[in-house]
Amino acid sequence: MPIPDLTLQQLRAVQAVAASGSFTKAAAVEHISQSVLSRRIKEVERLLRVRLFDRTTRQLDTTAAGQAFLLMTGTVLDDLDTQLQRFMSYVAAQSGTVALAALPSLAAVVLPDMIRGFMPDHSEVTFEIRDGDAAEVLGHLGSGTAELGLSANGDLPHDFCFMPLLREQFYGVAHHSHRWSMQGSLSWSDFGGETVVATPPGTSIRAMTDAVFGEHSIPVSRHFNAPSVAAIGGLLRAGVGVAALPALELQGFGLDDLVVVPVKSPNATRVTGVVYRGGQDLSPAAAGFLDFVRAAEIDPPRGCLAFSAKRPTWPAAHPM
């Protein structure tokens, strides 16, 4: 026996008539005329080949077939309403998931306050956070495993957009006995002849320091590529070299036994912010979070300056 092709409007019409016990009241509930409602009920009965309601001039009763039909379809309508409510919540950025990739320093220092400010009005939104170096952040964005990234404004692909959040001061960091302990500030030339404890290739810090040392022909020795801030700190405390690090990277250091001196030279800052693919339709939750961040006032950590709220979006090639 073929299954009747019933519409959602027809199912709701049957439910409304049964619930109100009146065609007049049901028509008002459905915001249609009584004649349109009557035609819908008759069409359902024709397709089902049963009578759903017994009608008299004084009374409207649901038949046994009608009661069975309501029992079976009522659950369908309730489930549909629940799912539609969830979907509308998703569309309104009240639920859903923000998939985000971030530099570890931004994930640890900047992102938590952003999420704390966002959540009161979006309590059903969840976050999937992946941390990694600048190359890994771009990899997540390129593969679609993340919609938004928190990274540095470095060599971004041409189809990516960048919204600046912070400008971080670079610092020279060394063992407490290093000659820098007598200086109030440094220039990039002060790194000349030093053994630099560097972050690995592919990181935003390495790209910037390599470019500066190369541009100014500053001779440095790179015997160490340290994979983490903890490893860099250990090497510096052992006195085997010095490091050039932006302000957020120092948040994880215990600095009491190290020399930390600001670098006062051109290109001695790192601009960090939100990265995303231009022209991509973000999920409502991700778009809502991006709008929130764009308008939010950021309390800059020590050694950082915040870009103003209602921040512009830079194309990938924008200078730092």
Automatic annotation (TrEMBL):
CC annotations in GO: cytosol
Gene3D superfamilies: Periplasmic binding protein-like II, Winged helix-like DNA-binding domain superfamily/Winged helix DNA-binding domain
Organism: Saccharopolyspora shandongensis
InterPro entries, A to Z: HTH-type_LysR_regulators, LysR_HTH_N, LysR_subst-bd, WH-like_DNA-bd_sf, WH_DNA-bd_sf
HTH lysR-type domain boundaries: 6-63
Protein name: Transcriptional regulator, LysR family
Family membership noted in the UniProt record: Belongs to the LysR transcriptional regulatory family.
Keyword Cell membrane assigned: no
Lineage: Bacteria, Bacillati, Actinomycetota, Actinomycetes, Pseudonocardiales
Keyword Acetylation: no
Keywords for the protein's UniProt record, in alphabetical order: DNA-binding, Transcription, Transcription regulation
Molecular functions per Gene Ontology: DNA binding; DNA-binding transcription factor activity
Name of one Pfam family that matches: HTH_1
